[in-house]
């Protein structure tokens, strides 16, 4: 996990200058800044005709994002602390850890180490960890749901169904289709 955090953080600053570059990323950050300021929207720029930005919906005096707020809610405390660039590197490290826990639960410690090592060599995974996109967060929620489910079916504790529900619920507020693709197989397996 520490290597994943370090590599993603280096990518975030070296290749992306620590700022969002893709329209989705900018929208997530703007939403988080608005939420941190107690607003649900941005004010319309004075000369909007020179500002038009993808995925921002103008509404007279306000601008709204077309994206669901799940990832932006996670960004809020980091925005308030002035360190939102750390979110995805931290999530990337957590994803490596969660993958290892799932692999260990399903197989053994050796497979867990191999699985975690493979993640470090995935260019897509590491680059997403350096961006401001919601991919890493969706992966965290998916892996959390799967791990909670595996613990739940062992009957270990009542906290695991709660963690499963929170993970899938927050995933629905971020990417609803991912909730379906994660939840449906778990439901089918359980039934």
Structure in words:
- The chain is mainly alpha-helical and 191 residues long.
- It contains nine helices and three strands.
- It has helices at 2-14, 23-36, 70-81, 87-106, 109-120, 123-130, 135-153, 159-172, 176-190; strands at residues 42-43, 56-59, 62-65.
- The chain has a three-stranded antiparallel sheet with strand order 1-3-2.
- It is globular and about 60 Å long.
Features:
191 residues, 5% strand, single chain, mainly alpha, 66% helix, three-stranded antiparallel sheet, 9 helices
Estimate what percentage of residues fall within beta strands: 5-15%
State the helicity in percent bands: 55-70%
User: Main β-sheet: number of strands, strand sense, barrel status?
Assistant: 3 strands, antiparallel
- The helix/strand series, from N terminus to C terminus, equals HHEEEHHHHHHH
Strand order of the largest sheet: 1-3-2
Low-confidence stretches: none
Walk me through the topology.
Blueprint: H1 2-14, H2 23-36, E1 42-43, E2 56-59, E3 62-65, H3 70-81, H4 87-106, H5 109-120, H6 123-130, H7 135-153, H8 159-172, H9 176-190
Antiparallel strand pairs: 1-3, 2-3
Helix pairs in contact: 1-4, 1-6, 2-3, 4-5, 4-6, 4-7, 7-8, 7-9, 8-9
Question: Outline of this structure?
Answer:
The chain is mostly helical. The chain has helices at about 1-15, 25-35, 70-80, 85-105, 110-120, 125-130, 135-155, 160-170, 175-190, and strands spanning about 40-45, 55-60, 60-65. It has a 3-stranded antiparallel beta sheet.
């Amino acid at each position: 996990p520490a290597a994943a955090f370090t590599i993603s953080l280096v990518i975030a600053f070296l290749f992306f200058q620590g700022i969002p570059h893709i329209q989705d990323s900018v929208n997530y950050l703007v939403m988080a800044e608005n939420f941190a300021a107690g607003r649900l929207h941005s004010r319309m720029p004075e000369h909007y005709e020179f500002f038009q930005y993808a995925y921002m919906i103008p509404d007279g005096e306000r601008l709204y994002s077309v994206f669901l707020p799940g990832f932006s809610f996670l960004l809020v405390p980091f925005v308030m602390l002035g360190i939102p660039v750390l979110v995805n590197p931290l999530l990337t490290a957590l994803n490596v850890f969660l993958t290892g826990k799932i692999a260990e639960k399903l197989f053994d410690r050796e497979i867990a180490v191999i699985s975690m090592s493979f993640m470090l060599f995935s260019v897509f995974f590491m680059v997403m960890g350096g961006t401001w996109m919601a991919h890493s967060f969706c992966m965290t929620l998916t892996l959390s749901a799967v791990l909670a489910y595996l613990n739940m079916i062992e009957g270990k504790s009542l906290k695991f169904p709660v963690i499963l529900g929170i993970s899938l619920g927050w995933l629905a507020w971020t990417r609803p289709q991912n909730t379906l693709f994660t939840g449906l197989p778990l439901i089918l397996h359980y039934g």
